[in-house]
TrEMBL record:
Record key words, sorted: Aminotransferase, Pyridoxal phosphate, Transferase
Task performed by this protein: Acts on the D-isomers of alanine, leucine, aspartate, glutamate, aminobutyrate, norvaline and asparagine. The enzyme transfers an amino group from a substrate D-amino acid to the pyridoxal phosphate cofactor to form pyridoxamine and an alpha-keto acid in the first half-reaction. The second half-reaction is the reverse of the first, transferring the amino group from the pyridoxamine to a second alpha-keto acid to form the product D-amino acid via a ping-pong mechanism. This is an important process in the formation of D-alanine and D-glutamate, which are essential bacterial cell wall components.
SUPFAM superfamilies: D-aminoacid aminotransferase-like PLP-dependent enzymes
One annotated GO biological process: amino acid biosynthetic process
Domain of life the protein comes from: Bacteria
Entries under PROSITE patterns matching the protein: AA_TRANSFER_CLASS_4
Single GO term (MF): D-alanine-2-oxoglutarate aminotransferase activity
Descriptive protein name: D-alanine aminotransferase
Essential cofactor(s): pyridoxal 5'-phosphate
EC number(s) reported in the record: 2.6.1.21
Recorded catalytic activity of this chain's protein: D-alanine + 2-oxoglutarate = D-glutamate + pyruvate
Family: Belongs to the class-IV pyridoxal-phosphate-dependent aminotransferase family.
Source species of the chain: Salinicoccus kekensis
Subunit structure: Homodimer.
Amino acid sequence: RISYYNGEYVNHDEMRIKSGDRAFYFGDGVYEVVRIYDGRFFTLDEHTDRLMASAEEVMIRGLERDEIVEILHEVRERNAITDGALYIQVSRGIAPRDHSFPDGSKPVIYASIREAKRPHGQMEEGVRAVTTEDYRWLKCHVKSLNLLANVMEKQYAVENGAKETIMHRDGVVTEGSSTNVFMVRNGTLFTHPADNLILNGITRQEVLKLAEANEIPFREEGFTVPDMSEADEVFYTSTTQEITPVTNIDGRQVGDGSVGGTTRKLQSLFNKKITQLKSV
Ligand code: PLP
């Protein structure tokens, strides 16, 4: 497996990370995960744009979009992976440990690829989720390397026999620990607006585009945990989890406990989009 770090393509297992990398001390950086289906990137431009936007938000300067795109293509081409996920991160730079931005350091890019099968089983059957308070910072729209809160939240799910933790701020559902959350009530789709309290998922945006194009009514509007408990359907989305139905929340079944019709419809439309990509 060939990965990229700080200007070099190297054998992944022999990679040497610089000890002064600010990603290491501070999680001082941003990242993306891009899906590869049948050897082709899915929504590459959207991910690249969001990486640039995240870097801009936290004032990581001197990042070139063209360089990012080139590295992404190069890593994909150097590895024979058909269905995979490409991880790319950009740290603020390499410097002795000091909180303030170092003078003259350049962003450090790391990229690696791994095989990632589509999550067919859970998309078919649905998963369990639990809810908890969202105690993250107020810049959740930045895809920051600082994921300690998300890690704690995901582990809470694992320890409670669930697949995902759905977070809420003062009772309003924001998102999952690594996913965006939707509910369906009386045929209308609801999801939290794309503000500073959530990461505006690329899959979230794809789902909203599909809803728009197929006359599925939707509202980007906050809803509460009790609203969600009484919803007909709930699902979450992400690059690797695609559209995953949630059939049980905090031990109570959602709707009649089976995967709902709107979720199925969106899954099938999303699937068509992926398949179309393959035949390009
Ligand atoms: N929300 C959070 C906190 C995430 O970490 C992620 C993805 O990892 C998402 C939402 C989903 O975003 P995307 O669909 O772009 O993968």
